[in-house]
Write a structure and sequence with these properties.
The complex is a heterodimer of chains A (115) and B (114).
Chain A lengths: L3 E2 L4 E5 L4 E3 L2 E2 L6 E8 L6 E7 L7 E2 L2 E6 L4 E6 L8 E9 L6 E3 L3 E6 L1
Parallel strand pairs in A: 2-12
Antiparallel strand pairs in A: 1-4, 3-9, 5-6, 5-10, 7-8, 8-9, 10-11, 10-12
Chain B lengths: L3 E4 L2 E4 L5 E7 L5 E8 L3 E8 L6 E2 L6 E5 L5 E5 L8 E8 L9 E2 L3 E5 L1
Parallel strand pairs in B: 2-11
Antiparallel strand pairs in B: 1-3, 3-8, 4-5, 4-9, 5-6, 7-8, 9-10, 9-11
The chains are: A mainly beta (115), B mainly beta (114).
């Protein structure tokens, strides 16, 4: 079974609007971390935001927030007020406590921000 | 602040040639990783090393070997390159003692096997 599933290969959003990128995960470990990375066309992997499985509140970092629904095993990334520079690939990833040497990545979502 | 440094950034190989991708990190991390990235497939783990002197296979280890030379360096070797190994390769590192710390990535190596 896939550990991380991103079901949106590509998305479009209008500049200044909000967009949600979906991520679901599969684990039986009660302790885990969820991560989102951005990969612009230049290729580097940029860490955006982290959510711990025991965190009571959704993580936020500037215009990025994570909509964490533990019972549904989803960790969607919300980008508010989209900017042209947000056009990139976005990857969701997970790290489990009992298997903490591995990061599991989804297949990514390509976001295009339209002017 | 170097972080994770990969060399080379680009490489073209002929089928059957060998090469080693180099990776070094200066953050004193125990865990290091090699991933490959192919269109539509995300990042797939080739090998990882939890600490100096240990290495383990990931999802797609066939055709690759690794060496954890010391705590800083983790190299990936292609003994006999094949066109199927055309990909972008990323090295990453992370502290090994927690599950809640992100991985830090190198800039990637774009490898083409012809």
């Amino acid at each position: 079974a896939q550990k991380i599933t991103q079901t949106q290969p590509g998305m479009f959003v209008q500049e200044k609007e909000a967009v949600t990128l979906d991520c679901t995960y599969d684990t039986s470990d009660p302790s885990y971390g969820l991560f989102w990375y951005k990969q612009p066309s230049s290729g580097e992997m940029i860490f955006l935001i982290y959510q711990g499985s025991y965190d009571q509140q959704n993580a936020t970092e500037g215009r990025y927030s994570l909509n964490f629904q533990k019972a549904r095993k989803s960790a969607n990334l919300v980008i508010s007020a989209s900017q042209l520079g947000d056009s990139a690939m976005y990857f969701c990833a997970m790290r489990e406590r009992y298997n903490f040497n591995k990061f599991y990545f989804g297949s990514g979502t390509k976001l295009n921000v339209k002017p | 602040n170097a972080g994770v440094t990969q060399t080379p950034k680009f490489q073209v190989l002929k089928t059957g040639q060998s090469m080693t991708l180099q990776c070094a990190q200066d953050m004193n991390h125990n865990s290091m990783y090699w991933y490959r990235q192919d269109p539509g497939m995300g990042l797939r783990l080739i090998y990882y090393s939890a600490s100096e002197g240990t290495t383990d296979k990931g999802e797609v280890p066939n055709g690759y070997n690794v060496s954890r030379l010391n705590k800083r360096e983790f190299s990936l070797r292609l003994e006999s390159a094949a066109p199927s190994q055309t990909s972008v390769y990323f090295c990453a590192s992370s502290p090994a003692d927690r599950a809640h710390t992100e991985a830090f990535f190198g800039q990637g190596t774009r490898l083409t096997v012809v």
